[in-house]
Design goal:
This protein has a single domain, classed as Creatine Amidinohydrolase, CATH 3.90.230. The protein has four helices and 15 strands. Strands 1, 2, 4 and 5 form a four-stranded antiparallel β-sheet that branches. A three-stranded antiparallel β-sheet has the order 3-12-11, with no helix packed on it. The chain has a three-stranded antiparallel β-sheet with strand order 6-10-13, covered by helices on one side. The protein has about 325 residues and is of the alpha+beta class. The structure holds 2-amino-4-trifluoromethylsulfanyl-butyric acid and cobalt (II) ion (CO) (2 copies). One cobalt (II) ion binds next to strand 4 and strand 5. One cobalt (II) ion binds next to loops.
């Protein structure tokens, strides 16, 4: 991605509405062992996803062509056109198909007790097996090969040592580079036994992506996509994240156009055959507003409500749209 009302902590097994761990008193030493008072340490965070430990960056065999930014972490903008050549689109079809395979492999590894770092390692090997370079590695300094966004994490969760828990939802976002182009896709997976409210969110979010894609037609403005997504999300009682949007993609990971997932009059660019971009709505149970973690990457919902996301890379065709990251079997 390029950058309401009342709720209950329905997903917090240990938290009461007021955010306390039953039995812990404010001035008790915190359960985490920090030595600080509970009220100055973990009170209010029960049931929330916390920052974990991030393992060292993995390496890629020298035979796999790296992105131009991998060495430095600095991303150079080029004047790549929004409408791609037939050769670029053909290369993106390959990159997209392989990225979708990596997503299926990583998704198949989702289970209670598996850490998001385990998922990163599985995905990292799956890219290598296919001759792909993980696009996110050192992208503006990003340290991992996928993003893993659990529960109230909206996007750009960094894989760490947190084991997935029964009842979690986790989005895995895979972007791979091969043949000089990127393929970008993601999906939200349920961990073990997930409550009905979260399963409905995940299903509605997938529907939002499909409706957004179905709105893609040459001659129509980009804003049609967000209009379709927002209409469905809000009819289901959910909100649409505004801070992160879909993006043009090709030889560059992120480029023009921006693709808002809400109705934005200013998204007036007319869709033309050969344009390639992502549709990747992030849909929340509560507020659309986000907060950022101190790591500078990870966005969480401002109210702690859960968030789901699905992403495809697309190309506009003469008559409609082609999905370049079709769902693969693991
Ligand atoms: N794959 C994400 C997207 O859909 C971007 C991740 S960039 C990273 O655009 F640096 F955070 F990994
Ligand atoms: Co994307
Ligand atoms: Co992505």
């Amino acid at each position: 991605m390029a950058p309401s009302g009342t709720r209950t902590l329905a997903h917090s097994p240990t938290a009461a509405g007021s955010g306390g761990l039953p039995g812990m008193k404010s001035n008790d030493p915190c359960w985490c062992g920090s030595g600080r008072k509970y009220k100055r340490c973990h009170r209010g965070t029960e049931g929330r996803v916390l920052e974990g430990r991030v393992s060292p960056m993995l390496t890629v065999p020298a035979g796999i062509a790296a992105t131009e930014y991998y060495a430095t972490g600095e991303v150079a903008r080029t004047d790549e056109p929004m409408v791609k050549s037939a050769e670029t689109i053909a290369a993106m079809r390959v990159a997209g198909r392989l990225a979708a395979e990596v997503l299926a492999v990583a998704g198949a590894a989702v289970a209670p007790g598996v850490t998001t770092d385990d998922l990163d390692r599985v995905a990292h090997q799956a890219y290598i097996d296919r001759g792909m370079f993980p696009s996110t590695l050192n992208y503006h300094g990003y340290p991992k090969s996928i993003c893993t966004s659990v529960n109230e994490v909206i996007c750009h969760g960094i894989p760490d040592d947190r084991p997935l828990q029964d009842g979690d939802i986790v989005n895995i976002d895979v972007t791979g580079f091969i043949g000089g182009v990127h393929g970008d896709c993601n999906a939200t997976f349920c961990v073990g036994d997930v409550d009905e409210q979260s399963r409905s969110l995940v299903e509605a979010t997938r529907e939002c992506r499909e409706l957004g894609i179905a709105a893609v037609r040459p001659g129509r403005p980009i804003s049609d996509i967000g209009k379709a997504i927002q209409g469905h999300a809000e009819a289901c009682g959910y909100s649409v994240v505004r801070m992160f949007v879909g993006h043009g993609i090709g030889r560059q990971f992120h480029m023009s156009p921006s693709v808002p997932h809400y109705y934005a009059r200013e998204a007036s660019t007319i869709l033309e055959p050969g344009m390639t971009f992502t549709v990747e709505p992030m849909i929340n149970i509560g507020t659309w507003r986000e907060k950022m973690w101190g790591n500078g990457w990870t966005a969480v919902t401002a109210d702690g409500s859960r968030s789901a996301q699905f992403e495809h890379t697309l190309v506009v065709t003469d008559t409609g749209v082609e999905v370049l990251t079709p769902e693969a079997a693991a």
